[in-house]
Amino acid sequence: MKAIQFKSFGNPEVLEYVELPTPQADAQHAVVRVVAASVNPSDVKNVSGHFEHTVLPRTPGRDFSGVVVDGPQAWLNAEVWGTGGDIGFTRDGTHAEFLKVPLAALSRKPSTLTHAQASAIGVNFVVAWLGTVEYAKLQAGETIAVIGAGGGVGGAVVQIAKARGARVIAVDRRPLDADTPAGRLIDAYVPFDEHVAERLRELTGGAGAEVVYDTVGGVAFETALSLAKRRGRVLEISSTGKRRVEFDLIDFYHNETQLLGVDSAKLGVAESAPLMTALVEGFESGKLSAPAIAQEFPLERAREAYEAVAAGTRGRVVVRMQ
């Protein structure tokens, strides 16, 4: 099979278009013919050597959509989708024509999504669901402030929160595009500047938000804490620009704030499958929408796809295998 592989860490130039043995199914695994696979910023970071646990040589890629071609009879020809923090890191990933996954990793993709759309869901929506639903347990009627709402994860948080009946306040450096799913769904927008806490409290009767989902972290961390209502929940998934942070501990415990870290990379492709399955109803009912696909590349041009993501392309970048 054709695949992308890297044998050393570096910029996208280290990616090679190679021929590798086609994987075979066994009693515990199935083989998926990958139709499309997105490229995430974490894939670019993986190739650059950002993650210490990556084993070389490696085919990268976390998200995928495809068809089961080898495995249990009940799954043959089924259209499936998935993601995982192990594929592309400690086991070969999705930027290849075929992918071997544990049977527990199989999840049927929504019939309403194309393979390209389905391949762009995984990482962003899993970490959004994990934080919003599993950890914060966001309830209908609550207010959630989403820092970085215009990004991939932020946009997924907006959609999931609205589907659960929450009020969503977008916090970003610029207004969200009204033509995007997230831009159409938000209830209010607050610029991320020195007045953000004041403005958000004006929108919440002085109380603050029950949930703050901070997709930026680092330089935004103290701001995130300032937006939380008493006994509010603050979710952190990143540390942009600042790994070590300081905050007023007295204010923190007086507010009885709950601080929660969220890391979907800890979920392997099998552990992520139940969350992918939980998302299916939202896409099939129309409560959730696929993000915009900014660019598509054939597998042999995957290096260009990585360069596009590294350059900060807005919208999702997808590699197609056929």
Question: In terms of topology, how is this protein built?
Answer:
Blueprint: E1 2-5, E2 16-19, E3 29-39, H1 41-48, E4 64-70, E5 79-82, E6 98-102, H2 115-119, H3 122-135, E7 143-147, H4 152-163, E8 167-172, H5 181-185, E9 188-191, H6 196-203, E10 209-214, H7 221-226, E11 228-236, H8 249-254, E12 258-261, H9 269-285, E13 293-298, H10 302-310, E14 316-320
Parallel strand pairs: 7-8, 7-10, 8-9, 10-11, 11-12, 13-14
Antiparallel strand pairs: 1-2, 3-4, 3-6, 3-14, 4-5
Domain Enoyl reductase (ER): 10-319
Protein name: NADPH:quinone reductase
Keywords: NADP
Labels describing this entry:
single chain, 322 residues, alpha/beta, Quinone Oxidoreductase, Chain A, domain 1, Rossmann fold, 2 domains, six-stranded mixed beta sheet, six-stranded parallel beta sheet, 10 helices, 14 strands, oxidoreductase activity
